[in-house]
Write a structure and sequence with these properties.
Elements lengths: L17 H24 L12 H20 L6 H20 L8
Helix pairs in contact: 1-2, 1-3
Length: 107
């Protein structure tokens, strides 16, 4: 079993890597959207929020994704921070692999 040290806790108000933090948030939002989609598929369009019809069916995926984004912004499932840490860990491992000297064997 390999033990890997996680990066130090990150202040959510000032993430060190804004791109990684945004990617983690977007991933959690997408995951929430995938979890919510089957729930909304069980709702009959005629009994939906806007009275049904093809318009509601057309816009439902967008509504579901926006709901997922709002859920993520208010805490969501708590996936953003572990995903963010994993992204940082993977970046660090990639940097370490590229910065370590490669030893060439003499023929």
């Amino acid at each position: 079993m390999r033990i890997v040290a996680l990066p130090a806790p990150v202040d959510l108000n000032e993430p060190k890597n804004a791109k990684a933090w945004k990617a983690a948030q977007e991933f959690e939002s997408m995951a929430l959207g995938q979890l919510l989609a089957p729930m909304f598929e069980t709702v009959k369009p005629s009994a939906g929020l806007f009275g049904g019809g093809s318009g509601e069916e057309t816009w439902r995926p967008m509504m579901t994704q926006e709901l997922a984004k709002q859920m993520e912004k208010t805490g969501g499932l708590g996936l953003s921070m572990p995903i963010y840490r994993q992204i940082l860990l993977m970046q660090q491992q990639a940097d370490d692999a590229h910065s370590s000297p490669v030893q060439k064997e003499d023929p």
